Amino acid sequence: FLVVGGWSNVSATDWRWQVQKIDIKMNPWVKVWDYTENFGHSAKVLSVAVNGDGTIYAGGFGYPDGVRIERLNTNSGSLKLEWARNPRKLMGEGNWSASCESAGVWGIAADREGSAYGAYPTGIPGGYGLVQWGMAKIGRNGEAYDENNPNSQWWTKFSNPEVERRSPNAACPWAVVADVSDQVIYVAGHDGEGPLDLGRTPYGRLRLEKRKMSDGVLLWEYVHAPYFDGSKVSCSPGYYCGQNVNVAATLAVDEVRDSAYLSGIKRNNRQLYVEKINIHEGVTPGTLAWAYEGSETPVGHGDEFLGSAVDPLGGGLYAVGYLDA
After folding, report:
1. Cα separation, 102 vs 171, whole angstroms
2. pTM value?
3. Helices and strands per DSSP (H, E), number in the chain
């Protein structure tokens, strides 16, 4: 079976949350069920995850809270659980701005026990445009972090290596992969570097974090700017400028060969870009093994990889995206 998520337009200003389960063994394929939900305003499924026992999670953006995770019945597609939070409430009072196009769960993964791990952009109390990574572990029955019980197994973590960055795109986590054998998760995306004026977009660093499933503790991080010429790129606050920065839009992990692949776009020539990162503890973890750069010459905003997966047997990487030819 294949599970896909996204949204359908109800009107020009209203999008409907949507998940489908498809039987791909049939030729032609057969839709098993179609789950939709309308919040009366914008709603988008941005990521889906299925664990070993078939538990299905959908993460994304749902009005009015923003950050949203749902657990669906595997057989019928009916709603079993919903978890929604306003990013501002997760951080305490303070301003926050949407980034990465939506302040929703862009990456989600699940473990064998049915817990979900979601990554989302969120604000930093103290001013407009201060954005950081947010990550949360949610239980199968909706258990979540409680500030009155900080020692519980449910956690919320934030990553903001450079608090002086001021941009809607300053910190965007795009993907999460769970390694259940080692009990860790990998979170990938991009961030900025250095102080920037309000309304300016950083050139972007590819970013990969490795965290423990049990408590969310950061084990190591990898950051790299494949291109930087010292300039700043103009970008209006709240507007997505992904094609103007280095972006790791998708993550694939090869547990057999202890490698992670960050795929996306490189800023200077706006071409397809992939980095292979060593994640084995015996080699210096979080180091660059090699980089691939597309040879096509974009004529518009640029080419970009948006999805990827590894072949666990052959060791190859499959990446999908678009060419702006």
Report:
1. 12
2. 0.86
3. 1, 23
